[in-house]
Amino acid sequence: MALVGFGNVGKAVSRVMLEKRELFQKIGFEPTVVGIFEKKGSWIDEKGLNLPEILSYGESSPSWVEGANAKEWIPDLDCELIVEMTVTNIEDGEPGLTHFREALNSGKDVVTSNKGPLVIAFPELMDLAEKRGRMLLYEATVGGAIPIFYAAREALLVNKVISITGILNGTSNYILTKMTDEGGSFSAALREAQERGYAEADPTYDIEGIDAASKLVILANGILKIKKKLRDVKIEGISKITPEMIDLAMEDGYIVKHIGYVDRNKIEVMPRLIPKSSPLAVGGTLNVISFETDIAKDITFIGRGAGPRETSSAILGDILYINKIRKENM
Amino acid sequence: MALVGFGNVGKAVSRVMLEKRELFQKIGFEPTVVGIFEKKGSWIDEKGLNLPEILSYGESSPSWVEGANAKEWIPDLDCELIVEMTVTNIEDGEPGLTHFREALNSGKDVVTSNKGPLVIAFPELMDLAEKRGRMLLYEATVGGAIPIFYAAREALLVNKVISITGILNGTSNYILTKMTDEGGSFSAALREAQERGYAEADPTYDIEGIDAASKLVILANGILKIKKKLRDVKIEGISKITPEMIDLAMEDGYIVKHIGYVDRNKIEVMPRLIPKSSPLAVGGTLNVISFETDIAKDITFIGRGAGPRETSSAILGDILYINKIRKENM
Question: Which of A40, A178, A257, A288 lies at a C-alpha separation of 20 to 30 Å from B206?
């Protein structure tokens, strides 16, 4: 395999692969990483990179090739899987989109944590994967470590998922939880989220619902199989929520949550009143995703929506799944 | 396949198989039911039973064989899968235990909703299945429709599950939710649960934690891989909970829940105080199961813990999984 993107997530995936060597051996998974690509250059060794060395010495490692970039290397690289972990870009999906296309076109499976290419071109990419007989898995893009795509694709396969409701962004959930539990204004809660590192200096993407809407687009395409785009999502952020609104809701047994919802007629992210006892009423930075299904009825999943190690759980879940399928078909 | 047990769950599985014919065709699953066994007799046709006819006409259906019983028929039946749905018996696991053994010994996979044989003989049965190269899956035994065993076995495979915490019995959760939301005594809440059909005439099994403890034993063996038995579980029921205890807890932001917990040192079911904002604080008859893991951290699953259709979702999830594995290895 090759790792494209070597920020916090790429490093966490590498570390967890080292930690879990014994487990991998037991289940017959022997990962060989032949390339790790980042912006300024890459580590390349078709006999297999030395991960501990790269994690310790970085660009001083002998396998470092200054200026080598993923786009040019992916097509001819001798490996069967590209793990794409570059930063999400919902404007044009790049550089991820090109990486996905190059990988699939050269007969490689793709596992990703990058929402950008899926938000921009989900149907095209799935068609391409199918045409090339390759897999494109993206568990890490929505709900962090929570295995929702796996559940829908496998364990709940007999069910039709009718709608999906969820809290898809940990930053906005943290802010609303803070306002609910301790009172205070939106701007005070945002400031605290920024101080704790839960919100970016420019928080627009999280608090205005754009991140959540991007995830809804992936849920709509990936689980409900409807070709929705970002522009189809009705979006309303949380920056206009006042302490008075929250108090008023609480008096009636409700809490205000930033909820994403998609069914075959509607796709939207907006503040909504949720009964306090609802499975959706989870606090802090947690994410929650609830499937309404025809046979199992409602199934709800709660977990950490972010964090490099948590994300690596989802990425490695996808990698192990592909390994299993490929081995069984050999 | 053959269905053993044709009560509410067996009938729901049959109905859902009929409803989902189109989906099954699409994924290449062509179920042929050659036998359906109940106490007084069985429907048998090695060319495939007519399910709609049996669901409509019962024992008047021409395939009915009075007195034919599962125990004698299972070994020689020409099928590859036994779906065991007889009633749970935690005293000696019968008749399920014999059905499991006969099925595995004659080279058939087993899918079940029956906790009894697993509570009595989990390690023995798993060893037998392994020795015979057969699968024994039991998603429906814990948490109804919630795909927890699937998640642990597949999607979260890279994780070590450190502990499992949950509300594993819908009846006792209904009673405690009622007492919390509306006040009133335990006995009043129990009476209402009985009137609504959520509790049996003899509610001991549910309210004294025996059902939850049985499920904990299956979670301990199946997910944590530790050989715990029912007698190892420290059990305390909910019948001594008073409205005063609940009020006192609520004043401090807690609610009283009947919680099952298992890790490598401890296995217990007892009333515990849970913070109101915890993912475990779900109401009504819902079940919740939370895995503490090393990489993904806490992952929580919420859903309906009972109901024939909900249970059939879990059973069919297991059946489709076996179908996939067997097809891939043909």
Answer: A288
Q: Regarding the domain delimited by B155-303, which CATH topology (the fold level of the hierarchy) does it fall under?
A: Dihydrodipicolinate Reductase; domain 2 (3.30.360)
Contacts of A293 in chain B (CB under 8 A): 313
Please give the pLDDT value at position A313.
98
Domain ranges, ordered by start, for chain B = 2-145+308-328, 155-303
Give the E-state strand segments of chain B in sequence order: 2-4, 35-37, 41-44, 64-66, 81-84, 109-112, 136-137, 161-167, 234-235, 254-262, 267-275, 286-293, 298-304
The beta strand positions in A175-325, using DSSP E, are 234-235, 254-262, 267-275, 286-293, 298-304
3-class secondary-structure state, position A227: coil
Q: Is there a catalytic annotation at residue B215?
A: yes
- Residue B309: closest C-alpha in chain A: A295
Tell me whether residues A279 and B282 touch, CB distance under 8 A. yes
**ipTM for the complex?**
0.96
Six-digit token string for A231: 């522009």
Nearest to B300 among A303, A310, A312 (CB): A303
Q: Is B20 on the interface with A (CB under 8 A)?
A: yes
Over residues B50-70, the pLDDT tens digits come to: 999 999 999 999 999 999 999
CB contact under 8 A, B309 and A316: no
> Tokens in use for B295?
């990489």
CB contact under 8 A, B27 and A314: no
Instruction: Give the global pTM.
Output: 0.96
Q: Do the strands A234-235 and A267-275 form a parallel or antiparallel pair, or are they unpaired?
A: parallel
Contact between A145 and B329 using a beta-carbon 8 Å cutoff: no
**Is domain B2-145+308-328 annotated with CATH 3.40.50.720?**
yes
